[in-house]
Amino acid sequence: MGANIFLMLAATLVLVSAAAGDGAETEVFQVAGKVLCQDCGEGWNEWVNGANPIKGSKVSITCMDDRNRVVQYASDLTDDAGNFEVTCNQYVNKKEIKPQNCFFRLVSSPDPLCNIATNFAGGKSGVKLHRRPAMVYRNIVKYDLGPFYYTTPMCDEPDTSITDEDDSDDGRQSNY
Any idea which architecture 27-157 has in CATH? Predict the structure, then answer.
């Protein structure tokens, strides 16, 4: 009988240690938000409040380690309501991924009329997960970002940051 108790205790210890090891490996963090189309051709009220969701828009997250090497990449497509939710592992190769070292950005829009990424909320240039999570529950940490916007080509502002030193050569000048 003493041997049976010993075997049960040993089995319990093995299960507990295995669960503890797996628990650290299965922790995740999620990044959620929304992607919308904002048309500047509408009136002010419609432009501010009337953005439409974009189904099938691709978003991505890239996570770096402490030496600025990419250790994780994930992406997601938006649903009918323009919502996305990207799930990342908290641990890669038994090393913790810090959400603050992750970079989120817009990738593409399938809408042929609304496919110019804007920098509202940092979607075009990218945004780091430096703020506090919106939810922490058991082994899941969730960050809410955005909303992020695409716009129409008509609304896209030309890049005027590049200036020509020599204005005499019309062949090299931009027409904007």
Answer: Sandwich (2.60)
